[in-house]
Amino acid sequence: MNKIIFLFGTFLLSLSIVIAQASECSVDYSLALTQTEEACNATSRNQACYGNNTVNIIPFDPTTPIQFDTPGDIADVGIIRRLSLSALDEASGEWGIAMMRLLANLSPSQPNDITVLFFGDVSIESATKTTSWLPVSTIIHANIRHIASESSTVVWSVPESTELNAIGRTEDSRWVQVLDNEANQAGWILAELLEEFDTTSLPVVESTAPYFGPMQAFYFSTGSRSCSNVPLDGILIQTPEGIGRVTIWVNEVTVDFMDQAGSTALLHTSDENTMDIQMLEGYAYVSTDNEGYIAVAGSTVAVEYGDGGPNMGIPEPSNAYSSVDTLSIVPRPVNESNPTTTDQIAQANGLTPNQYEEVVVHGYVVSTPEPVVSNTDTSQQNIVLSNDSSSNSNNTGSSNNNQNSGNNSNGNSSSGS
Protein backbone atom coordinates (compact mmCIF):
# COMPACT_ATOMS: atom_id res chain seq x y z
CA MET A 1 0.00 0.00 0.00
CA ASN A 2 1.45 3.30 -0.99
CA LYS A 3 2.21 5.73 1.80
CA ILE A 4 2.70 9.41 1.48
CA ILE A 5 3.13 11.81 4.31
CA PHE A 6 1.82 15.27 2.83
CA LEU A 7 -2.08 19.34 -2.57
CA PHE A 8 -2.28 22.72 -3.03
CA GLY A 9 -4.83 24.12 -5.41
CA THR A 10 -6.90 27.10 -6.20
CA PHE A 11 -10.42 25.87 -5.71
CA LEU A 12 -12.76 26.37 -2.78
CA LEU A 13 -13.29 24.41 0.41
CA SER A 14 -16.35 25.19 2.43
CA LEU A 15 -14.87 24.58 5.85
CA SER A 16 -17.30 23.58 8.57
CA ILE A 17 -15.84 24.03 12.03
CA VAL A 18 -16.81 23.97 15.63
CA ILE A 19 -18.14 27.30 16.85
CA ALA A 20 -16.56 28.34 20.11
CA GLN A 21 -18.18 30.57 22.66
CA ALA A 22 -16.89 33.95 21.47
CA SER A 23 -18.32 37.25 20.33
CA GLU A 24 -18.42 38.40 16.74
CA CYS A 25 -15.80 40.81 15.47
CA SER A 26 -16.26 43.60 12.96
CA VAL A 27 -13.52 42.32 10.69
CA ASP A 28 -13.58 41.13 7.08
CA TYR A 29 -10.98 38.40 6.78
CA SER A 30 -12.15 37.35 3.28
CA LEU A 31 -9.56 39.75 1.81
CA ALA A 32 -6.81 37.78 3.53
CA LEU A 33 -8.11 34.54 2.04
CA THR A 34 -8.36 36.04 -1.44
CA GLN A 35 -4.86 37.48 -1.16
CA THR A 36 -3.46 34.15 -0.03
CA GLU A 37 -5.07 32.28 -2.90
CA GLU A 38 -3.67 34.73 -5.45
CA ALA A 39 -0.22 35.08 -3.89
CA CYS A 40 0.39 31.37 -3.34
CA ASN A 41 -1.09 30.00 -6.55
CA ALA A 42 2.34 29.13 -7.98
CA THR A 43 3.68 27.35 -4.89
CA SER A 44 5.61 24.22 -5.85
CA ARG A 45 6.19 20.94 -4.07
CA ASN A 46 8.04 21.07 -0.74
CA GLN A 47 7.64 24.82 -0.53
CA ALA A 48 6.01 27.10 2.03
CA CYS A 49 4.20 30.27 0.98
CA TYR A 50 3.60 33.45 2.96
CA GLY A 51 -0.13 34.06 2.66
CA ASN A 52 -1.07 36.92 4.96
CA ASN A 53 0.55 38.96 7.71
CA THR A 54 2.20 37.93 9.87
CA VAL A 55 4.24 34.73 9.42
CA ASN A 56 7.72 34.18 10.89
CA ILE A 57 10.28 31.49 10.06
CA ILE A 58 13.19 30.26 12.14
CA PRO A 59 15.58 28.12 10.01
CA PHE A 60 17.65 25.18 11.21
CA ASP A 61 20.75 27.14 10.23
CA PRO A 62 20.62 30.71 11.60
CA THR A 63 22.91 31.88 8.81
CA THR A 64 20.49 30.80 6.07
CA PRO A 65 19.33 33.87 4.12
CA ILE A 66 15.51 34.03 4.02
CA GLN A 67 13.17 36.49 2.31
CA PHE A 68 9.83 35.63 3.90
CA ASP A 69 7.96 38.72 5.02
CA THR A 70 5.61 39.60 2.14
CA PRO A 71 2.58 37.75 0.73
CA GLY A 72 3.76 35.47 -2.07
CA ASP A 73 7.26 34.92 -0.62
CA ILE A 74 8.41 31.30 -0.91
CA ALA A 75 10.73 29.22 1.28
CA ASP A 76 11.99 25.65 0.98
CA VAL A 77 10.34 23.60 3.75
CA GLY A 78 13.62 21.75 4.28
CA ILE A 79 15.20 24.81 5.92
CA ILE A 80 12.31 25.49 8.30
CA ARG A 81 12.75 24.56 11.92
CA ARG A 82 9.88 26.63 13.28
CA LEU A 83 6.94 28.52 11.78
CA SER A 84 4.73 30.91 13.76
CA LEU A 85 1.67 32.89 12.68
CA SER A 86 -0.09 35.86 14.24
CA ALA A 87 -3.51 35.68 15.82
CA LEU A 88 -6.35 37.79 14.49
CA ASP A 89 -5.85 41.46 15.35
CA GLU A 90 -9.13 43.26 14.81
CA ALA A 91 -7.49 46.68 14.86
CA SER A 92 -4.71 46.03 12.34
CA GLY A 93 -6.47 43.34 10.32
CA GLU A 94 -3.58 40.91 10.78
CA TRP A 95 -4.43 37.21 10.58
CA GLY A 96 -1.50 34.96 9.79
CA ILE A 97 -1.91 32.47 6.94
CA ALA A 98 0.72 30.16 5.45
CA MET A 99 0.47 27.28 3.01
CA MET A 100 2.62 24.30 2.16
CA ARG A 101 2.69 21.78 -0.64
CA LEU A 102 4.36 18.61 0.57
CA LEU A 103 5.28 15.19 -0.76
CA ALA A 104 6.48 12.22 1.23
CA ASN A 105 6.89 8.45 0.90
CA LEU A 106 5.61 8.46 -2.66
CA SER A 107 7.36 7.22 -5.77
CA PRO A 108 8.25 9.73 -8.50
CA SER A 109 5.78 7.98 -10.83
CA GLN A 110 2.94 9.18 -8.57
CA PRO A 111 3.56 12.92 -8.20
CA ASN A 112 0.70 13.83 -5.87
CA ASP A 113 0.98 16.35 -3.07
CA ILE A 114 -0.85 17.10 0.16
CA THR A 115 -2.30 20.49 0.94
CA VAL A 116 -1.48 21.97 4.34
CA LEU A 117 -2.96 25.31 5.43
CA PHE A 118 -2.01 27.10 8.64
CA PHE A 119 -4.21 29.97 9.83
CA GLY A 120 -4.44 32.14 12.91
CA ASP A 121 -2.46 31.75 16.10
CA VAL A 122 -0.40 28.67 15.19
CA SER A 123 3.13 27.64 16.07
CA ILE A 124 4.69 24.59 14.42
CA GLU A 125 8.10 23.02 14.91
CA SER A 126 9.65 20.29 12.78
CA ALA A 127 10.15 16.96 14.58
CA THR A 128 12.47 15.59 11.92
CA LYS A 129 16.18 15.78 12.38
CA THR A 130 18.30 17.48 9.77
CA THR A 131 19.70 14.79 7.48
CA SER A 132 23.13 14.80 5.91
CA TRP A 133 23.68 12.61 2.87
CA LEU A 134 26.37 11.12 0.74
CA PRO A 135 26.11 11.25 -3.09
CA VAL A 136 26.12 7.77 -4.64
CA SER A 137 25.56 6.37 -8.13
CA THR A 138 24.10 3.11 -9.44
CA ILE A 139 26.26 0.78 -11.53
CA ILE A 140 23.30 -1.10 -13.00
CA HIS A 141 19.54 -0.73 -13.48
CA ALA A 142 18.26 -1.21 -9.93
CA ASN A 143 15.14 -1.44 -7.81
CA ILE A 144 14.60 0.77 -4.78
CA ARG A 145 12.58 -1.11 -2.18
CA HIS A 146 10.35 -0.10 0.70
CA ILE A 147 12.45 -1.91 3.32
CA ALA A 148 15.79 -3.70 3.23
CA SER A 149 14.57 -6.99 1.79
CA GLU A 150 14.59 -8.48 -1.69
CA SER A 151 10.98 -9.55 -1.14
CA SER A 152 9.88 -6.02 -0.23
CA THR A 153 7.74 -3.83 -2.47
CA VAL A 154 9.61 -2.02 -5.24
CA VAL A 155 8.99 1.68 -4.62
CA TRP A 156 10.66 2.80 -7.81
CA SER A 157 13.38 1.72 -10.26
CA VAL A 158 16.36 3.65 -11.58
CA PRO A 159 18.62 3.18 -14.60
CA GLU A 160 22.36 2.76 -14.55
CA SER A 161 24.40 5.82 -13.45
CA THR A 162 21.53 7.37 -11.51
CA GLU A 163 22.71 9.71 -8.76
CA LEU A 164 21.06 9.22 -5.38
CA ASN A 165 21.60 10.55 -1.86
CA ALA A 166 22.58 7.90 0.68
CA ILE A 167 21.33 8.66 4.21
CA GLY A 168 21.63 5.38 6.09
CA ARG A 169 22.54 1.70 6.06
CA THR A 170 21.68 -1.61 7.69
CA GLU A 171 23.97 -2.85 10.44
CA ASP A 172 25.68 -5.30 8.07
CA SER A 173 26.01 -2.56 5.37
CA ARG A 174 24.35 -4.84 2.80
CA TRP A 175 21.57 -2.33 2.20
CA VAL A 176 21.72 1.46 1.82
CA GLN A 177 18.85 3.87 2.43
CA VAL A 178 18.65 6.49 -0.32
CA LEU A 179 16.65 9.56 -1.22
CA ASP A 180 15.44 10.38 -4.70
CA ASN A 181 16.83 13.76 -5.71
CA GLU A 182 13.55 15.17 -7.01
CA ALA A 183 10.64 13.68 -5.07
CA ASN A 184 12.25 13.34 -1.63
CA GLN A 185 11.27 9.67 -1.66
CA ALA A 186 13.17 7.30 0.60
CA GLY A 187 13.89 3.64 -0.11
CA TRP A 188 16.46 0.87 0.17
CA ILE A 189 18.95 -0.42 -2.41
CA LEU A 190 21.51 -3.20 -2.26
CA ALA A 191 24.96 -1.69 -1.66
CA GLU A 192 26.44 -3.94 -4.34
CA LEU A 193 24.40 -2.07 -6.96
CA LEU A 194 26.16 1.21 -6.14
CA GLU A 195 29.62 2.46 -6.97
CA GLU A 196 31.94 1.43 -4.17
CA PHE A 197 32.09 3.83 -1.21
CA ASP A 198 32.66 3.72 2.53
CA THR A 199 29.27 2.60 3.85
CA THR A 200 30.46 2.87 7.45
CA SER A 201 30.31 6.65 7.12
CA LEU A 202 26.49 6.33 7.13
CA PRO A 203 24.40 5.88 10.29
CA VAL A 204 22.75 2.53 10.99
CA VAL A 205 18.99 2.78 10.44
CA GLU A 206 16.14 0.37 11.22
CA SER A 207 14.81 -0.46 7.75
CA THR A 208 11.18 -0.89 8.85
CA ALA A 209 11.05 2.57 10.42
CA PRO A 210 9.04 5.10 8.39
CA TYR A 211 10.93 7.97 6.83
CA PHE A 212 9.57 11.45 7.44
CA GLY A 213 10.84 14.30 5.29
CA PRO A 214 10.66 18.01 6.09
CA MET A 215 7.48 19.00 7.96
CA GLN A 216 6.01 15.51 7.61
CA ALA A 217 6.43 15.08 11.36
CA PHE A 218 5.93 18.06 13.64
CA TYR A 219 4.79 19.51 16.94
CA PHE A 220 2.25 22.33 17.00
CA SER A 221 0.03 24.44 19.23
CA THR A 222 -2.78 26.89 18.51
CA GLY A 223 -4.44 29.74 20.32
CA SER A 224 -8.08 30.17 21.28
CA ARG A 225 -10.49 31.97 18.99
CA SER A 226 -11.69 35.36 20.19
CA CYS A 227 -14.19 35.97 17.38
CA SER A 228 -17.04 33.55 16.63
CA ASN A 229 -17.26 34.69 13.00
CA VAL A 230 -13.61 33.84 12.25
CA PRO A 231 -12.33 30.29 11.57
CA LEU A 232 -10.82 28.44 14.49
CA ASP A 233 -7.02 28.77 14.66
CA GLY A 234 -5.57 25.54 13.37
CA ILE A 235 -4.08 23.41 10.63
CA LEU A 236 -6.11 22.12 7.71
CA ILE A 237 -4.77 19.03 5.92
CA GLN A 238 -6.27 17.63 2.72
CA THR A 239 -5.07 14.48 0.97
CA PRO A 240 -5.55 13.85 -2.75
CA GLU A 241 -7.88 11.33 -4.32
CA GLY A 242 -6.60 7.94 -5.45
CA ILE A 243 -3.88 7.52 -2.79
CA GLY A 244 -3.88 4.41 -0.61
CA ARG A 245 -2.28 5.82 2.52
CA VAL A 246 -1.16 9.23 3.71
CA THR A 247 0.70 9.41 7.01
CA ILE A 248 1.69 12.30 9.24
CA TRP A 249 3.21 12.30 12.73
CA VAL A 250 1.92 15.15 14.88
CA ASN A 251 2.39 15.81 18.58
CA GLU A 252 3.49 12.19 19.12
CA VAL A 253 0.40 10.81 17.37
CA THR A 254 0.37 9.00 14.02
CA VAL A 255 -2.48 9.87 11.65
CA ASP A 256 -2.96 7.51 8.69
CA PHE A 257 -5.44 8.93 6.19
CA MET A 258 -6.87 5.86 4.46
CA ASP A 259 -9.73 7.00 2.20
CA GLN A 260 -9.04 6.52 -1.52
CA ALA A 261 -11.50 9.36 -2.21
CA GLY A 262 -9.34 11.72 -0.15
CA SER A 263 -9.64 13.04 3.40
CA THR A 264 -9.69 16.44 5.09
CA ALA A 265 -8.96 17.08 8.76
CA LEU A 266 -8.70 20.09 11.05
CA LEU A 267 -6.05 19.99 13.79
CA HIS A 268 -6.33 22.25 16.82
CA THR A 269 -5.07 22.38 20.40
CA SER A 270 -7.81 23.46 22.77
CA ASP A 271 -5.27 24.04 25.56
CA GLU A 272 -1.66 23.17 26.27
CA ASN A 273 -2.60 19.62 27.24
CA THR A 274 -5.20 18.66 24.61
CA MET A 275 -5.14 18.17 20.83
CA ASP A 276 -8.29 17.66 18.73
CA ILE A 277 -8.24 15.93 15.34
CA GLN A 278 -11.54 16.67 13.61
CA MET A 279 -12.36 14.69 10.48
CA LEU A 280 -14.29 16.79 7.96
CA GLU A 281 -14.34 14.13 5.22
CA GLY A 282 -12.94 10.67 4.64
CA TYR A 283 -11.50 8.68 7.52
CA ALA A 284 -8.20 8.09 9.27
CA TYR A 285 -6.57 5.63 11.62
CA VAL A 286 -5.28 7.65 14.58
CA SER A 287 -2.82 5.88 16.87
CA THR A 288 -0.30 6.22 19.67
CA ASP A 289 2.17 3.60 20.86
CA ASN A 290 -0.57 1.99 22.95
CA GLU A 291 -3.86 2.34 21.09
CA GLY A 292 -5.53 3.29 17.82
CA TYR A 293 -8.98 4.01 16.43
CA ILE A 294 -10.70 4.73 13.14
CA ALA A 295 -11.99 8.32 12.99
CA VAL A 296 -14.71 8.83 10.39
CA ALA A 297 -16.06 12.07 8.91
CA GLY A 298 -18.05 13.95 11.52
CA SER A 299 -16.04 12.62 14.46
CA THR A 300 -13.29 14.11 16.60
CA VAL A 301 -10.39 12.42 18.39
CA ALA A 302 -9.23 14.15 21.57
CA VAL A 303 -5.68 13.46 22.73
CA GLU A 304 -4.67 14.49 26.25
CA TYR A 305 -1.04 14.87 27.30
CA GLY A 306 0.42 14.16 30.71
CA ASP A 307 3.59 12.83 32.26
CA GLY A 308 3.05 9.46 30.57
CA GLY A 309 2.76 10.88 27.06
CA PRO A 310 -0.34 11.06 24.85
CA ASN A 311 -3.55 9.49 26.10
CA MET A 312 -6.09 9.12 23.31
CA GLY A 313 -9.82 8.68 23.68
CA ILE A 314 -12.04 6.84 21.25
CA PRO A 315 -13.50 9.12 18.53
CA GLU A 316 -16.72 10.86 19.49
CA PRO A 317 -19.26 12.80 17.41
CA SER A 318 -18.00 16.30 16.66
CA ASN A 319 -19.77 19.29 18.11
CA ALA A 320 -22.35 20.95 15.90
CA TYR A 321 -20.87 22.36 12.74
CA SER A 322 -21.55 25.83 11.38
CA SER A 323 -20.30 26.98 8.01
CA VAL A 324 -18.21 30.03 8.80
CA ASP A 325 -16.89 30.92 5.37
CA THR A 326 -14.92 29.49 2.48
CA LEU A 327 -11.18 28.95 2.64
CA SER A 328 -10.14 29.30 -1.00
CA ILE A 329 -6.86 27.43 -0.64
CA VAL A 330 -7.26 23.69 -0.97
CA PRO A 331 -8.11 21.89 -4.17
CA ARG A 332 -11.18 19.83 -3.39
CA PRO A 333 -14.54 21.18 -2.14
CA VAL A 334 -15.81 19.48 0.99
CA ASN A 335 -19.52 19.08 1.50
CA GLU A 336 -20.75 20.14 4.91
CA SER A 337 -21.48 16.99 6.88
CA ASN A 338 -23.41 16.47 10.07
CA PRO A 339 -21.75 14.95 13.13
CA THR A 340 -21.63 11.17 12.87
CA THR A 341 -23.40 8.93 15.37
CA THR A 342 -21.83 6.81 18.08
CA ASP A 343 -23.21 3.70 16.35
CA GLN A 344 -21.36 4.62 13.15
CA ILE A 345 -18.13 5.17 15.06
CA ALA A 346 -18.57 1.86 16.88
CA GLN A 347 -19.16 0.01 13.62
CA ALA A 348 -16.06 1.55 12.02
CA ASN A 349 -13.99 0.27 14.95
CA GLY A 350 -15.51 -3.22 15.06
CA LEU A 351 -17.43 -2.59 18.29
CA THR A 352 -21.02 -3.07 19.31
CA PRO A 353 -22.81 0.06 20.61
CA ASN A 354 -22.53 -1.29 24.17
CA GLN A 355 -18.83 -1.94 23.81
CA TYR A 356 -18.35 1.59 22.44
CA GLU A 357 -20.01 3.03 25.55
CA GLU A 358 -17.72 0.90 27.73
CA VAL A 359 -14.67 2.33 26.00
CA VAL A 360 -15.98 5.88 26.50
CA VAL A 361 -16.62 5.27 30.20
CA HIS A 362 -13.77 2.93 31.16
CA GLY A 363 -11.24 3.41 28.37
CA TYR A 364 -11.53 -0.25 27.38
CA VAL A 365 -14.12 -2.98 26.74
CA VAL A 366 -15.23 -4.52 30.02
CA SER A 367 -17.49 -7.27 28.68
CA THR A 368 -16.36 -10.20 26.57
CA PRO A 369 -16.01 -8.95 22.97
CA GLU A 370 -18.69 -10.18 20.61
CA PRO A 371 -18.11 -10.88 16.91
CA VAL A 372 -19.06 -7.91 14.78
CA VAL A 373 -20.14 -8.49 11.21
CA SER A 374 -20.05 -5.48 8.92
CA ASN A 375 -19.83 -4.93 5.18
CA THR A 376 -18.66 -1.32 5.41
CA ASP A 377 -15.33 -0.37 3.88
CA THR A 378 -14.17 1.38 7.04
CA SER A 379 -14.64 -1.65 9.28
CA GLN A 380 -12.89 -3.87 6.75
CA GLN A 381 -10.04 -1.40 6.68
CA ASN A 382 -9.91 -1.50 10.46
CA ILE A 383 -9.30 -5.25 10.35
CA VAL A 384 -6.32 -4.70 8.07
CA LEU A 385 -4.93 -1.93 10.24
CA SER A 386 -5.23 -3.90 13.45
CA ASN A 387 -2.83 -6.46 11.98
CA ASP A 388 -0.24 -3.95 10.79
CA SER A 389 3.26 -4.46 12.12
CA SER A 390 4.73 -1.93 14.53
CA SER A 391 7.77 0.14 13.69
CA ASN A 392 9.75 3.06 15.03
CA SER A 393 10.41 6.35 13.33
CA ASN A 394 14.02 6.74 12.26
CA ASN A 395 14.16 10.51 12.34
CA THR A 396 11.71 11.82 14.91
CA GLY A 397 13.27 10.10 17.86
CA SER A 398 9.87 8.67 18.81
CA SER A 399 8.21 5.34 18.20
CA ASN A 400 5.13 4.94 16.01
CA ASN A 401 2.88 1.92 15.78
CA ASN A 402 0.76 0.71 12.89
CA GLN A 403 3.12 1.72 10.10
CA ASN A 404 2.79 -0.51 7.05
CA SER A 405 6.10 -2.26 6.49
CA GLY A 406 5.22 -2.86 2.87
CA ASN A 407 6.96 -6.24 2.77
CA ASN A 408 4.02 -8.36 1.69
CA SER A 409 4.44 -8.04 -2.04
CA ASN A 410 7.26 -8.28 -4.48
CA GLY A 411 7.71 -5.84 -7.33
CA ASN A 412 8.93 -6.95 -10.74
CA SER A 413 12.65 -7.48 -10.66
CA SER A 414 14.85 -5.53 -13.03
CA SER A 415 18.55 -5.91 -13.57
CA GLY A 416 19.23 -5.25 -9.88
CA SER A 417 17.26 -6.42 -6.86
Number of strands: 28
Q: Rg from C-alpha positions? A: 22 Å
- Mean pLDDT reading: 79
For the biggest sheet, the summary is: 10 strands, antiparallel
The total of helices stands at 4
What share of the residues does DSSP label as strand, in percent?
25-35%
End-to-end Cα distance = 20 Å
Task: Tell me roughly what share of residues is in helical segments.
Answer: under 10%
Structural class by helix and strand composition: mainly beta
Unreliable stretches (pLDDT < 50, length at least 5) are 1-21, 368-394, 397-414
General form: globular
What does this structure look like?
It is a single chain. The strands form six sheets. Strands 2, 4, 6, 7, 16, 19, 20, 23, 24 and 25 form a ten-stranded antiparallel β-sheet that branches. The longest helix has 10 residues, at 30-39. The protein has helices at 30-39, 342-348, 353-362, 377-386, and strands at residues 13-18, 47-52, 55-59, 74-76, 80-85, 97-102, 114-119, 122-126, 134-137, 142-145, 154-158, 163-169, 175-179, 186-190, 217-222, 234-238, 246-250, 253-257, 264-271, 274-281, 283-287, 292-296, 299-306, 309-312, 316-317, 321-327, 391-392, 399-400. A hairpin with an 8-residue loop joins strand 10 and strand 11. It has 417 residues and is mainly beta. Helix content is 9%, strand content 35%.
